[in-house]
Amino acid sequence: MACIKTLLCVGACMTAWSMTTGDTSVPKAQNVHWTSLDFQTILKWTVEESEHTYTVMYSEKNHDNWMDVDHCSRTSETECDLTRELEASDKNYEADIRADSEHLLDEFGSDYDFPHTYAPMFNPYKESNISALEFSLTDVDEGTVILNITHPLTSISEGGKQQTIKDILKNDLKYKISYYKSGSTGKKKKIVDSSSAEVSGLDAGQSYCFMVAAFIPSRPKATQQGAWSTLQCRQGDTHFTQGAYTCRHKTEAQKR
């Protein structure tokens, strides 16, 4: 009987404690990953449906100096734009997402061990994806064209000027050109240093199609190449950007 009374007492005490403190579980951030395009870098995560908020901090790797992100403090969003904080630095960064709870903070104070989720290490300069370039074609003669390449703008400004990917990557930025003659199954590729690139040795009177992409050989292989541009074609002195199928279709129609 004494044992039963003890168990009942323990059960009652636990129930009372539970009613007082409520549910102390705080869902931590999950599926944490980086997305970065043209050096606009965003940290994203998913959470179970809840009323909790999340605070993001970041630090350069191996530096015990975690810094808050003002616009991502106790946020109910599931992403945080860190472009301004990381810029396009050739440094390795870590990020920490802390799950917050006003209820637990009021009850236990700032010493409460809220759950943390750490993001994978990220280097903006080496890992940010590069979007498609734009270019125009200029004829030199029947066998030679020049591709005039323009650079995407980034979300980074310096001295009041919005930076392009060329401003940031400087001499690390090269250009990969892919081109082929209509009716041919083989593609030719060349890598050039200049944004004004000459392609020669073309057969006079033949239709050719071209694409370009940013290429950064100093990067890890997975992020060396940017997205391919829109296909542009040349038939004699006529240029059009309607894609490879149209380019081939026009050539075949002319043959008939």
Automatic annotation (TrEMBL):
Residues 135-234 form the Interferon/interleukin receptor domain. GO terms for cellular component: plasma membrane. Initiates blood coagulation by forming a complex with circulating factor VII or VIIa. The [TF:VIIa] complex activates factors IX or X by specific limited proteolysis. TF plays a role in normal hemostasis by initiating the cell-surface assembly and propagation of the coagulation protease cascade. It is a single-pass type I membrane protein. Residues 7-103 form the Fibronectin type-III domain. Keywords: Blood coagulation, Disulfide bond, Glycoprotein, Hemostasis, Lipoprotein, Membrane, Palmitate, Signal, Transmembrane, Transmembrane helix. Interacts with HSPE; the interaction, inhibited by heparin, promotes the generation of activated factor X and activates coagulation in the presence of activated factor VII. Residues 1-22 form the signal peptide. Pfam families: Interfer-bind, Tissue_fac. One of its GO terms (biological process) is blood coagulation. Belongs to the tissue factor family. It comes from Poecilia mexicana. The keyword Glycoprotein applies. This is Tissue factor. It is found in: Membrane. One of its GO terms (molecular function) is cytokine receptor activity.
